[in-house]
Backbone:
């Protein structure tokens, strides 16, 4: 399973989201590859992704995808990440 942590520049925010998503998945006992990316790399990264994690303001940049787009309001809120990933991953 592949999950994309998406941010505008692909430097800090997506790395924070990636680490916290890994923690949330560990809580759920789910293993997945999580890749941090930016707007420029999103199309290629998302080709085989099951889930894309993004902030509300970046959703408009995602475009057409077969992945579930999960909007994360607070990248530091492990409870939010855990809850939303659990719903997305069933």
Residues:
């Amino acid at each position: 399973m592949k999950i994309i942590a998406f941010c505008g520049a692909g430097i800090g925010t997506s790395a924070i989201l990636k680490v916290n998503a890994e923690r949330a998945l560990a809580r759920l006992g789910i293993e997945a590859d999580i890749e941090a990316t930016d707007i420029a790399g999103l199309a290629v990264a998302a080709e085989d992704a099951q889930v894309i994690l993004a902030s509300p303001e970046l959703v408009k940049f995602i475009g057409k995808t077969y992945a579930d787009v999960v909007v994360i309001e607070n990248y530091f809120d492990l409870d939010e990440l855990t809850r939303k990933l659990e719903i997305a991953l069933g």
Summary: The domain at 2-89 is CATH 3.40.50.2300 (Rossmann fold).
